[in-house]
Amino acid sequence: MSTFTIFLALIVVVAFLLVVVIMVQNPKGGGLSSSFGGGGTQQLGGVKKTTDFLDKSTWTLATLLLVLILVSNVAISRGGETLDSKALDTDATTTQPLPSTTPLQTTNDDAPATAKDTAQ
């Protein structure tokens, strides 16, 4: 199993967890946090702590996802290809054919009209 495959699997898992954490949140204060502490009674950490946990976990997972994506770029196999520019290679020979030195032949039909041709 290559390193890139491991990074890809981690990216998929973190992205799935991030979607789950975001879907649990409700922008108006409802969602999971209201089911734990709604109605004025304090249960299982209360509303404020659940909201703080969801907010911190969202930022943590988003940061982790970004870092995994950036680090996975290093793990991509390049196939032994060098990253140097071919334009900087002084040993390279050109394989382009040289232009021919024979002039193009023109016929009278292709030549521009002269005053002598128009007088006839």
Automatic annotation (TrEMBL):
GO terms for biological process: intracellular protein transmembrane transport; protein secretion; protein transport by the Sec complex. Pfam families: SecG. Keywords: Cell membrane, Membrane, Protein transport, Translocation, Transmembrane, Transmembrane helix, Transport. The keyword Zinc does not apply. It is found in: Cell membrane. It is a multi-pass membrane protein. It comes from the Bacteria. GO terms for cellular component: plasma membrane. Residues 86-120 are annotated as: Disordered. The chain crosses the membrane at residues 6-24, 58-76. GO terms for molecular function: protein-transporting ATPase activity. Residues 93-107 have a biased composition (Low complexity). Belongs to the SecG family. Involved in protein export. Participates in an early event of protein translocation. PANTHER family: PROTEIN-EXPORT MEMBRANE PROTEIN SECG (PTHR34182). This is Protein-export membrane protein SecG. It comes from Hwangdonia lutea.
